[in-house]
């Protein structure tokens, strides 16, 4: 690896080379076992005598920083561990604008023994060997665009495949020209925010709802209006004049899991038309269905071009692929394409090409069928456990899709949910509190995408012990989340 050495002036050159190489070893820029350039080559690069470099190397070798082997070269001593950390200046006089300071920090990455958190599929179910073949197939010269850059909307083959897939699976009305490929659903929401949100724009979100979307709109300067959710979905009667944008998850409300009724969908579309508002329909994980036929998406019921349909393959395949899409009305497409180009020009064409083949060869549909069978087993285990072991404390919100179940506190129980979540974490079980997502009712949100069916029973048993230890039963009054 090239290593920058600065030599200003003409005095004490060997000492300066020594200090900069030593600092590089100490802070980890030069790692144990890494080969340094020959003295002749480094001397030529620095425009100094070879002897000057040799003196620096000899001193570092004598102090144990380097090992020199005749005929092989000079290396950082094996087993040497960096003792200091290199960091950028603190920048105490530089501050972000106020709305960024108010947003919570991104969560850390941990690996609990039993992960019941929401929002991620099981990577063990992903057909890695097949994907490797498709990626290898995509790495061909013909894929490279003549100009070096590609269409900001995404690879045409993938847009065609997505339009066909969502048209068949979800009845979405779209052609390839209506689809914009994004790096996950979050980027799709960001593009919409760039195009439609000005400082002070009123944006309605569901309560409880999806915090990353609310935070993103806030970062764009929106004024957030929280709208309650009931058994039929977002309460349209609670919407107020002046709302410009409505974010909703009608197919599988996040986090409750209930679908929006057809009557409510019709009412929401009518409200948007009367009030000149735009609807963002986030269809985040409805690929996995366990019963019932899905209702028509808002996009397919919309005849006025007010719905932007957002989807993601992160929940279906792998989050690390960072692939999503946005279906937009024609009036917004030019602005969205411009925003995408300004943001990152275009996404990874190799991954997009592989996904296009994955869809066209019927592999996506096969993967969804196989994964749905596995997730159905896990879901049934959780349903049985809550109904049999935690029936005095929790009840299940009816849901027929997705990768999680919502279990609010039972009406007759007064419990401390946060204690149960904390105790579970200490026992190696990660689970989330319903209050994390807003609303007025406490409970647990239990995901089943990351815990295999061979381990789920042990994880549930530990969770049950923690719930009991936290006093979560109808017989114990120890909490502050009454239903």
UniProtKB/TrEMBL annotation:
GO MF annotation: an example: pyridoxal phosphate binding
CDD domains documented for this protein: AAT_like, WHTH_GntR
Species name: Amycolatopsis keratiniphila
The keyword Oxidoreductase belongs to this UniProt entry's keyword annotation: no
InterPro entries referenced in this protein's UniProt entry, alphabetically: Aminotransferase_I/II_large (IPR004839), HTH_trans_reg/aminotransferase (IPR051446), PyrdxlP-dep_Trfase (IPR015424), PyrdxlP-dep_Trfase_major (IPR015421), Tscrpt_reg_HTH_GntR (IPR000524), WH-like_DNA-bd_sf (IPR036388), WH_DNA-bd_sf (IPR036390)
UniProt KW keywords: Aminotransferase, DNA-binding, Pyridoxal phosphate, Transcription, Transcription regulation, Transferase
Keyword match DNA-binding: yes
Lineage top rank: taxon: Bacteria
Domain HTH gntR-type: 11-79
Record-stated family: In the C-terminal section; belongs to the class-I pyridoxal-phosphate-dependent aminotransferase family.
Protein's name in the database: GntR family transcriptional regulator / MocR family aminotransferase
């Amino acid at each position: 690896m090239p290593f920058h050495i600065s030599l200003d002036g003409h005095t004490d050159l060997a000492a300066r080379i020594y200090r900069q190489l030593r600092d590089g070893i100490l802070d980890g820029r030069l790692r144990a076992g890494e080969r340094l350039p020959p003295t002749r080559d480094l001397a030529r690069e620095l425009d100094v005598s070879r002897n000057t470099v040799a003196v620096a190397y000899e001193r570092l070798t004598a102090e144990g920083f380097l090992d020199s082997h005749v005929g092989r070269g000079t290396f950082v001593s094996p087993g040497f561990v960096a003792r200091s950390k290199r960091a950028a200046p603190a920048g105490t006089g530089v501050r972000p604008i106020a709305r960024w300071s108010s947003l919570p920090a991104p969560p850390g990455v941990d690996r609990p023994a039993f992960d019941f958190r929401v929002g991620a599929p099981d990577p063990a179910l992903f057909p890695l060997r097949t994907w490797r073949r498709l990626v290898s197939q995509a790495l061909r010269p013909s894929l490279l665009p003549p100009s070096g850059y590609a269409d900001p909307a995404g690879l045409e083959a993938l847009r065609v495949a997505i339009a066909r897939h969502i048209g068949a699976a979800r009845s979405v009305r779209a052609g390839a020209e209506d689809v914009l490929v994004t790096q996950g659903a979050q980027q799709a929401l960001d593009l919409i925010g760039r195009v439609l949100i000005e400082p002070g724009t009123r944006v309605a979100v569901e309560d409880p709802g999806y915090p990353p979307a609310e935070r993103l709109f806030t970062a764009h300067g929106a004024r957030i209006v929280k709208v309650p959710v009931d058994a039929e979905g977002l309460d349209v009667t609670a919407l107020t004049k002046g709302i410009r944008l409505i974010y909703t998850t009608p197919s599988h409300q996040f986090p409750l899991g209930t679908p929006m009724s057809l009557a409510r969908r019709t009412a929401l579309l009518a409200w948007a038309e009367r009030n000149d508002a735009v609807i963002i329909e986030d269809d985040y994980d409805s690929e996995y269905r366990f019963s019932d036929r899905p209702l028509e998406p808002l996009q397919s019921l919309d005849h006025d071009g007010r719905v932007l349909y957002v989807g993601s393959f992160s929940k279906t395949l792998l989050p690390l692929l960072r692939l999503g899409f946005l279906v937009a009305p024609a009036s917004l497409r030019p602005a969205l394409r411009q925003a995408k180009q300004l943001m990152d020009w275009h996404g990874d064409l190799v991954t997009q090409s592989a996904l296009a083949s994955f869809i066209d060869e019927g592999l996506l549909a096969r993967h969804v069928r196989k994964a749905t069978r596995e997730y159905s087993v896990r879901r049934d285990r959780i349903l049985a456990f809550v109904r049999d072991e935690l029936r005095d404390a929790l009840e299940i919100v009816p849901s027929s899709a997705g990768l999680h179940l919502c279990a609010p506190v039972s009406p007759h129980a007064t419990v401390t949910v946060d204690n149960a979540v904390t105790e579970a974490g200490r026992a190696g079980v990660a689970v989330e509190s319903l209050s994390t997502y807003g609303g007025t009712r406490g409970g647990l949100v239990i995901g089943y995408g990351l815990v295999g069916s061979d381990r789920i029973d042990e994880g549930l048993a530990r969770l049950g012990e923690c719930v009991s230890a936290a006093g979560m039963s109808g017989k114990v009054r120890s909490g502050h989340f009454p239903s």
